[in-house]
Amino acid sequence: MNFGFKQTVKYLAPPCLIDLARRLKMIVRRERPEWECIPEGWARMQVDSNIKGWNVGSVLEAYKAKWPAFVRQLEGTAPLGTSPESHTLQQNDLALHNTMMVYAYALTLASWQKASITMLDWGGGIGHYYLISKTLLPGLEIDYHSKDMPVFIEHGRRLFPQAHFYADESCLTQRYDFVLASTSLHYSQDWSVVLARLAKATAGYILITQLPIVYQSRSFVFVQRPYRYGYNTEYLGWCLNRAEFLDRAQAAELELVREFLIGHQVPIARAPEPCEYRAFLFRPRTSNVGRN
Fold it and tell me: Which of 95, 143, 166, 274 could pair with 263 as two cysteines, CB 3.0-4.6 Å apart?
C-alpha cells in the first residue's frame, strides 16, 4: 500500500493515541480567541489551513440540527430575539431582537402598498430570511432569491422549492424590490465591489445589516473561530470603518435612508478599536421610491 506520512501514522498508531491527538487539537482551538485581528489580512488564507471559509459541510449540518428549534422560535407570540445559530429556546437577546425589528422595518418599507415583491438575500444560507419574512408579513407574496455557497443550495431548494437559490452571481443579472445582506457583506474580500454590484441590482431598498463597524481606526481583517457553534472551520472578515463604508456606498450611487443600532459587540483580540454591529438601509440615489 502507498501511504503518505499522515496515513501511515494513522494506520500504525493505537486508537487511544489518535483520540488523544484529537482531544489535544480541540484544546488548542479552545485556547485561541474566537475573534482575533489579523494584521496580514487576507494573505492569512494562504498559510493557515484552518481557514476553510463557509463552504464546509459542518456549517450545513449545524443549520439542519438547529432548524426545528428555529422554526419553533418563529411561532407563537414570544419576542423575536432569535437567530439561525440559536441553540436555546430562550428569545430574550436584545441584539437579536433589534436585528429582527430592523429587518421588519426595512421589509415593510420595501413592500409598502405592494401585494408582492422580488427579493434577493445575499448570503441567505438555507433560506432563514424567507421564513422570517413570511412570519413578519404573512400576507405578502415574496419572489425570494438567495445566493450563497454551494454546500447550502441543495438543502435550501428542498426546504423551499418555490424559491430560487444560486451558487453563482447570475442572480445579479436582474433587479429586485428589496436586497438584503445580513452578516454577509463583510465576509467578501472585495466587499466594496460586491456592494456596488448589489446596488445595481436594487430597484427599491437595500439593507446591509449585522455589519461590524469601527469609527477611528482603519478597516481591518479578523478571523473568527466558530467551533462552539459546531462549525468545523475558520473564516476571515472585515471590520469596516464607518466613514469608508458610507463613502463606498455613496460611490455606488446609494442614498442612506436610515442607520440602526444593533447593540451587538464582539471582543476581537488585538483589535485597534472595539467594534459594534450596525445596520444601514439605502435606496438607489436615482430611485423615486418613498419620495413624494
Answer: 95
Q: Is 267 helix (H, G, I), strand (E, B) or coil?
A: coil
Q: What local confidence, expressed as pLDDT, does residue 5 receive?
A: 45
The residues, ordered by sequence, that sit 6+ positions from 77 with a Cβ below 8 Å of its Cβ are none
The model scores a pTM over 0.85 = yes
**Residue partners of 205: CB distance under 8 A and separation at least 6:** 106, 109, 110, 177, 178, 179, 257, 281, 282, 283, 289, 290
Cα gap 180→212, rounded to integer Å: 16
**Regions of the chain where pLDDT drops below 70:** 1-30, 86-90, 287-292
Closest Cα partner for 137 from 109, 104, 162? Answer: 104
Q: Which CATH class is domain 37-284?
A: alpha beta
The one-letter amino acid code at 77 reads T
Single-letter amino acid, residue 151: V
The secondary structure of the chain in percent helix, strand, coil, rounded to multiples of 5, reads: 40, 25, 35
Residue 41: C-alpha distances to residues 45, 185, 189 (Å): 9, 16, 9
Amino acid 159 reads: L
Domain boundaries, the chain: 37-284
pLDDT value for 51? 96
Bridge partner list, 255: 283
- Cβ atoms within 10 Å, residue 21: 13
User: What are 66's three cell numbers?
Assistant: 438547529
